[in-house]
Amino acid sequence: METVTTVAGLRMALAKTRKSGKRVGFVPTMGYLHKGHVALIEASRAQSDATVVSIFVNPTQFGPNEDLNTYPRDFLRDERQCRDAGVSILFAPDAREVYPGGFETLVEPSELTKSLCGAFRPGHFRGVATVVCKLFNMVQPDVAFFGQKDFQQCAVVRRMAIDLDLSVEIVTVQTVREPDGLAMSSRNRFLNEEQRQRALAISRALFAAEAEFKAGEREVDALLEIAKRQLERVDLLQYAELVEVDTLKPAESPLRRPAVFCVAAYVGGTRLIDNVILN
Ligand code: PAF
Asked: Are residues 169 and 190 part of one domain?
């Protein structure tokens, strides 16, 4: 594995790979890697010849009162994990490399960011779309991999690739969970034992709604009610919503088309998100 920190270094490393006509897979991350990231790397390795991973804690996707400064970081551990997972190139630029002085051009998604996290994190998806677009231009991957836990992010990136004619295939990989159901997230490390237990309310709420859906329930209010009973244990529920998978607009009741049940909640000071697709 080659570790590079500059765009010039990345292009040199990639040139060798491309000369031999290899299909390049890309896994963008903010580091502090966990099994969810490893699943993205494995999916990339299965579908491409060389995998590039980026580690960059992107400042433009954090709001002024969010956790940019405390976001967990452990570069040496991440580098080891990437090497063990069979990554070909690790790209770890600093903020000046990604946003040099004078930088002023942003990618602004629109309709897809009006609901869910977009409604609570103004500017977040502009930061995500901008950095993912830049990373796509730097890496020029054939295929890129994103986790389903960030369902709205997947929708925004997919839409951006279509709208901006980016020739990259976007693959969504199923959420990886702890054995008790908690969705893997770099932010889980902020939970103490008591909070970790209460955080289970989120996946339990989603699984309860999913079970009722599988048993035949199609009324949106009934599904929300079942989930909300579990969600009483979180400290602050930002949203628990059933939305259409393509538009992310509220799903009509009774459900006739695939929908995704999305939750965002705070447990202690930690904001967690999760979702299940009801299809
Ligand atoms: O999902 C993430 O880790 C980030 O939002 C991403 C896609 C790496 C962009 O900074």
From this structure: no
